[in-house]
């Protein structure tokens, strides 16, 4: 047990020391494939399609407490949160495990998952840059959506966003690691994503679901990865309950991911490695 | 050039479909696992509609049943793309990069036919089932129209499929020049997602885009309008024009692309 703790401590030190180089490598990669990156990022515009429906529905008056401006604001923040909490680890793990490309990564002096986390972090400035034109177009279309949040809402949003990022990444890693047991785990991920899109607030603000459903949905991990930060920024949920839920899910999924890695890496090697 | 345009035979189509079905069905477990995904994504398309129409009875002239029809046709379109268009045309992009396309081009069969019908993703069948179910439910609530109306709707749907297939082929053809365009597929999927709602919820500019350049409204909204009897003058002509235009243009571009194609190994 002590050995394990010492091990993870040295991992963190490693990660911090290697961090600037990884950041640089990852960012150069982004810039080299900038056209691809732009396309990837533009592909996440489904919130705008959802917005058009709700915008038309609210043309005659507010729907469930949301007017046209509220919807525009909700889906603009939705776009931002989705973009800043995105990662590709489920695809990468799937591919690397199946093709045996995980092996060289295991030889590096850094845990492959930690390495990926650093890479994902490094992509953030790029993703943020892509958001500017998207949100800019939305703001041109409906300038009223721009607002200045209170200081506490802004800080709370930052915290909720960070927790959402970690949780979303961990969940993707879990589904990616399923490839240790099933050679192809993308089917599971698609099913998860379909559930997530409904229950996270991606398609619809959760408070538009019938009474009772909302409270239930807010307990699920889906909400903690997307709806939670949106609701904190827009002042629609109490920060304390949001953070509690997020932290609980981060701990639970983190433990599961750690266990899966240990068990999975023992199985790994069967796949042509 | 005979290299790119060989014989176009019906028995070739039959054999292609049979072989691709057989090769895809070998993963039986994953095929049935995909059933969940199909059911869930159908549900996902319907849930926002259920929620919005629980509060607002009519949106931009569309009631719930009409919008449900659009959704049904959108699911059918998705099944067509996921089951047939994406697996095949996606493979072309990879084939250009790896040079494997050469093996297809040397066969004495029409190249477009071969690259369009080589693979089937049978999991899309669940989306097909979901789409049929949604259309049937909507029609049952609306009252079944006469045969002529249904034939018109079916014809418009097929025209829409032809137009969207042409668009996909056009996008894929760019890989002959730019090699790395895998991600354009995702962009196309994202944009055509707009077809899930009746086209009138979009602003005028987007509406024009969705009926011409990215003709996804033709495949979802137009057939629904035919069944509801709300088609306007010129809609049929637009659909047929877009279908014919896209098909001719994409075939022409493909022929030029093949003529330019130098193969990865040369």
Distance between the termini of chain B: 20 Å
Determine the number of helices of chain B (DSSP H or I, runs of at least 4 residues).
12
List low-pLDDT spans of chain A: none
Major beta sheet summary of chain B: none
- Determine the fraction of residues in helical runs of chain A and give it as a percent range: over 70%
Supply the helix-strand structural class of chain B. Answer: mainly alpha
Q: How many independent structural domains of chain A?
A: 1
Shape of chain B: globular
Q: How many separate helices of chain A?
A: 14
Indicate the mean pLDDT of chain B.
82
Percent of residues in β-strands of chain B? under 5%
**Structural class given helices, strands, pairing of chain A?**
mainly alpha
Question: Can you characterise this structure?
Answer:
Chain A contains 14 helices and no strands. Chain A is mainly alpha-helical and 273 residues long. Chain A has one domain (2-267). Residues 1-6 of chain B have low confidence and may be disordered. Chain B starts with 9 loop residues before the first helix and ends in a 6-residue tail after the last helix. The longest helix of chain B is centred in the N-terminal third of the chain and has 35 residues, at 64-98. Chain B is mainly α and 266 residues long. Chain B has twelve helices and no strands. The A-B interface holds A 36, 39-40, 42-46, 49-50, 52-57, 59-60, 63-64, 184, 187-188, 190-191, 194-195, 197-198, 203-204, 208-210 and B 30, 33-34, 36-37, 40-41, 43-44, 47-48, 51-52, 54-56, 59-60, 180, 183-184, 186-187, 189-190, 193-194, 196-197, 200-203, 206.
Topology of helices and strands:
The complex is a heterodimer of chains A (273) and B (266).
Chain A: H1 2-32, H2 34-42, H3 46-57, H4 68-84, H5 89-99, H6 102-107, H7 112-122, H8 124-141, H9 151-177, H10 186-199, H11 213-219, H12 221-225, H13 227-233, H14 239-267
Chain B: H1 10-25, H2 28-55, H3 64-98, H4 101-105, H5 111-116, H6 125-142, H7 147-173, H8 175-178, H9 182-192, H10 204-211, H11 216-228, H12 235-260
């Amino acid at each position: 047990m002590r050995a394990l703790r010492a091990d993870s401590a040295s991992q963190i030190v490693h990660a911090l020391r290697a961090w600037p180089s990884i950041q640089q490598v990852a960012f150069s990669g982004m810039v080299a494939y900038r056209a691809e990156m732009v396309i990837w990022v533009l592909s996440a515009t489904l919130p705008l399609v959802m917005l058009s429906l709700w915008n038309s529905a609210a043309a005659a008056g507010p729907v469930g407490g949301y007017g046209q401006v509220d919807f525009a604001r909700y889906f603009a923040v939705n776009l931002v949160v989705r973009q800043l909490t995105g990662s590709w680890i489920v695809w990468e793990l799937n591919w690397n495990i199946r093709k045996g490309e995980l092996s060289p990564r295991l030889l590096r002096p850094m845990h492959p998952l930690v390495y990926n986390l650093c890479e994902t972090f490094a992509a953030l400035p790029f993703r943020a840059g892509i958001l500017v034109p998207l949100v800019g177009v939305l703001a041109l279309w409906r300038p009223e959506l721009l607002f200045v949040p209170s200081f506490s809402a802004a800080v709370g949003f930052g915290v909720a966003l960070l927790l959402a990022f970690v949780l979303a990444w961990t969940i993707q890693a879990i589904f990616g690691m399923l490839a240790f047991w099933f050679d192809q785990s993308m089917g599971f991920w698609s099913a998860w994503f379909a559930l997530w899109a409904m229950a996270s607030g991606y398609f619809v603000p959760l408070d538009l679901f019938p009474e009772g459903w909302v409270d239930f949905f807010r307990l699920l991990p889906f909400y903690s990865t997307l709806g939670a930060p949106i609701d904190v920024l827009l002042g629609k949920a109490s920060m304390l309950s949001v953070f509690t839920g997020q932290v609980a899910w981060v701990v639970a999924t983190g433990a599961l991911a750690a266990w899966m890695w240990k068990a999975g890496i023992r199985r790994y090697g069967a796949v042509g490695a | 050039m005979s290299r790119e345009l060989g014989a176009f035979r019906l028995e070739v189509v039959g054999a292609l479909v049979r072989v691709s079905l057989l090769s895809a069905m070998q993963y039986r477990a994953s095929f049935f696992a995909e059933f969940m995904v199909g059911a869930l994504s159908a549900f996902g398309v319907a849930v926002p509609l259920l929620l919005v129409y629980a509060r607002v009875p009519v949106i931009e002239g569309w009631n719930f049943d009409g919008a449900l029809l659009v959704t049904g046709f959108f699911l059918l379109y998705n099944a067509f793309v996921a089951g047939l268009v994406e697996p095949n045309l996606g493979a072309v992009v990879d084939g250009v990069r790896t040079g494997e396309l050469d093996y297809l081009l040397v066969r004495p069969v029409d190249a477009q036919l071969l690259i369009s019908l080589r693979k089937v993703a049978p999991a899309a069948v669940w989306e097909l089932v979901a789409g049929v179910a949604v259309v049937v439910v909507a029609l049952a609530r609306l009252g079944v129209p006469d045969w002529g109306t249904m034939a018109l709707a079916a014809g418009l749907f097929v025209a829409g499929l032809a137009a969207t297939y042409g668009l996909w082929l056009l996008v894929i053809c760019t890989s002959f020049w730019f090699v790395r365009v895998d991600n354009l597929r995702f962009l196309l999927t994202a944009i055509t997602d707009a077809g899930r709602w009746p086209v009138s919820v979009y602003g005028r500019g987007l509406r024009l885009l969705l009926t011409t350049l990215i003709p996804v409204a033709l495949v979802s909204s137009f057939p629904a309008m035919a069944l509801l009897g709300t088609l306007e003058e010129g809609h049929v002509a637009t659909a047929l024009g877009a279908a014919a235009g896209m098909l001719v243009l994409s075939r022409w571009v493909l022929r030029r692309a093949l003529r330019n194609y130098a193969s990865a190994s040369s």
